Amino acid sequence: MHFQKTNVLGISFYNGELKDACLHARLGGLITAPSGPGLAQDLPKCPVYRKALQESDMVLADSGLLCLWQKWIRKDPIIRISGLIFLKAIIDQINWEKEKVLWVMPDQKQAEANIAWLKKTYGAKIEDDDLYLAPQYASGELVDRSLLAQIKANRPSSIFIQVGGGVQERLGLYLKENLSYLPSIYCTGAALAFLSGQQVRIPKWVDKLYLGWLLRCMHSPTIFIPRYIKALWLIALLAKHRGNAPEFGD
Predict the structure, then answer these.
(1) pLDDT tens digits for 6-39?
(2) How many CB atoms neighbour CB 145 within 10 A?
């Protein structure tokens, strides 16, 4: 896919409008939206995570911290498209009567809530073979032959991976490398959980002001405050490496 990109930390980030991002993504490929904590922690430590981002067909600039750095410090702005806004725009375009879609969910509770929201909001018809409950994946290179077999049998045109960041990118890469066709593989964090109410709802104006992290910290402080404190390491990586990939263990 050909579109404008900006290179940061060895990753080519999509730098265009939401409408065009959706258009390109719907053609197929691996689409990732790495978070600030993911870039800060996983990029310099996990070779498979880095490979997943480097081999993505589209990488969205979800991190507000990265976008602010590019705008105010580097003077080379990147248009921010959050995983939340992007996911909502994509599922708004799905033809639920004709398109085959697969949802990879982290557990039964979230699966039930997310599916209920999709059915209520879109009238989506989601059958048993449209759903896959992900196991607990190990670190490093990821393999899931059961998921691969289900996809090969049903050949969905879109695959939405809703497991945690740092894992979903590796799973997306595994699918891209092992499927004989290339569906649209969306790795947008826990965006669907925000829409369905499994995580704190984030209004559009809050997301636009890059303040989604604040609502998450207020809603679940023990989970998100340590996570976003670690994300501050991203500033050091950006200052040191700019457009280049950080060294492993950095």
Answers:
(1) 999 999 999 999 999 999 999 999 999 999 999 9
(2) 9
Alpha-carbon radius of gyration of the chain? 17
Average pLDDT of span 96-107: 95
Angle formed at CA 139 by CA 69 and CA 244, multiple of 5 degrees: 30
Q: pTM for the whole thing?
A: 0.92
Per-residue model confidence as pLDDT tens digits over 35-63 = 999 999 999 999 999 999 999 999 999 99
Extract the tokens encoding 10: 């060895």
140 torsion bin: left (phi>0), alpha (psi -120 to 50), beta (else): left
Measure the CA angle with vertex 217, ends 215 and 220; round to 5°: 105
**pLDDT tens per residue across span 151-179:** 999 999 999 999 988 999 999 999 999 99
